[in-house]
Design goal:
Layout lengths: L2 H43 L2 E15 L20 E14 L3 E9 L1 H6 L10 E9 L5 E10 L19 H4 L4 E10 L5 E8 L15 E11 L2 E11 L8 E12 L4 E13 L7 E16 L2 E12 L13 E12 L5 E12 L4 E3 L2 E3 L1 E12 L1
Antiparallel strand pairs: 1-2, 1-18, 2-3, 3-4, 4-5, 5-6, 6-7, 7-8, 8-9, 9-10, 10-11, 11-12, 12-13, 13-14, 14-15, 15-18, 16-17
Length: 380
């Protein structure tokens, strides 16, 4: 390559990087401007404006020692190994009064790089961007639209909100976020919540090229007491171009029980079906049970143990190219310590065992994987 071409390529790369940084800076300035406008309005009508932030710094070590320092492809959170990195850092502005609400949150981290890889441009940096309006004066009925957290699952992308350090296979391979519109109603006693959703597909801000249809979802939550929560959520739609349309019906059921002041139990079960080919009346299936027990002897300490099993033989969500597909059992144990109210220090050991040799260790295919993950999480 001539020196002129080398110099041209260097300038092109610099321009691309410069454009990316400019876009991120513009988004940050937009967030600050929006926050200022919300603050001015909050002073005028006595509504509530909240500014919050979060950073989750982690170090993980995968004993299979992947050469690219990246965890297996079905892992989307805490997915880098043998390096100190940030899983997620965000800053958020939330505004609410009796008739409207809005949230804007921008993020960085390896979670965003892995889980939003298909989103174009600075959409990769959006954690939340939504607004809602109350539709009834005497009823808790809201219409929200934009980008928001998924209505599926009991584990969010934000580590401090989860009992375990890392996410389950089930959580990493179902939506963490979604975009569209949702109509939600909560009863006056706060025991029932029901929501109907119209979505831009399976975890998309921007739909895939060639996909012209919208997807639908439903969520029903029942909370008979402060110690029990039961949730059912579903998704129906197509995640592929129309030319290869495969209808997917995904069901998520979980319950959270605070059995005693110190012991909590979460039990979840996901089940999904997807057409084998376009227009087919036959289906492929996957299912996954998860159980997590947490023990909190004192306020500053917590211990959690997890069992999970995931079977996706035909590769609806996790493709392996092996005879039995993805059929994996997982076990984990973690300890949390909170030295101050807004800081969490965590360590977790996790072991996977698969029916087929889907993992790689020392250039050999193996059916096991062990990883230790530590994290320091700070919020304000």
């Amino acid at each position: 390559m001539s020196k002129e071409k080398q110099q041209l390529n260097k300038h092109l790369k610099a321009s691309i990087n410069h454009g990316r940084y400019v876009k991120i800076i513009v988004c940050a300035l937009a967030l600050l401007t929006t926050t200022n406008l919300f603050a001015q309005q909050a002073v005028q009508d006595n509504s509530k404006l909240t500014i919050s932030g979060y950073a989750d710094i982690y170090y993980g070590y995968d004993f299979n020692k992947p050469l690219n320092n990246t965890r297996p492809p079905f892992v989307y959170s805490y997915n880098r190994t043998n390096e100190v990195n940030i899983d997620m850092g965000y800053i958020k502005a939330a505004y609410a009064n009796n008739s409207m609400r809005a949230n804007v949150a921008l993020m960085v981290g390896t979670y965003a790089n892995a889980n939003l890889a298909a989103e174009p441009g600075v959409l990769k940096n959006i954690l939340e961007a939504n607004a809602g309006v109350k539709l009834a004066k005497d009823a808790n009925l809201w219409l929200d639209a934009g980008v928001f957290s998924s209505h599926i699952g009991f584990e969010s992308a934000i580590g401090k909100d989860c009992w375990t350090v890392t996410r389950s296979i089930l959580a990493d391979n179902s939506p963490y976020y979604e975009s569209g519109a949702k109509l939600g109603y909560t009863t006056n006693d706060d025991k029932f919540f029901i929501s109907a959703l119209m979505l831009n597909g399976w975890q998309h801000i921007q739909r895939p090229d060639g996909n012209t249809g919208l997807s639908a979802g439903l969520q029903v939550t029942y909370k008979p007491s402060d110690n029990i929560l039961i949730n059912y959520s579903n998704f129906y739609g197509n995640d592929k171009p129309d030319s290869a349309k495969l209808n997917r019906f995904y069901n998520n059921l979980f319950a959270v029980f605070q059995l005693t002041k110190k012991i909590g139990l979460t039990a979840g079960f996901d089940f999904a079906s997807e057409q084998k080919y376009k227009g087919a009346s036959t289906y492929n299936y996957l299912y996954s049970p998860v159980f997590i027990v947490r023990y909190t002897p004192i306020d500053k300490f917590a211990v959690a143990a997890r069992f999970e099993y995931y079977k996706d033989q035909n590769g609806i969500l996790i493709k392996t190219g092996t005879p039995n597909g993805f059929e994996t059992t997982g076990y984990s144990l973690n300890v949390d310590y909170s030295p101050v109210k807004n800081m969490l220090l965590r360590v977790e050991g996790k072991y996977y065992n698969s029916k087929d040799a889907i993992f790689i260790a020392n250039n050999f295919n193996v059916n096991y994987n062990t990883v230790i993950t530590t994290s320091m999480e700070v919020s304000f």
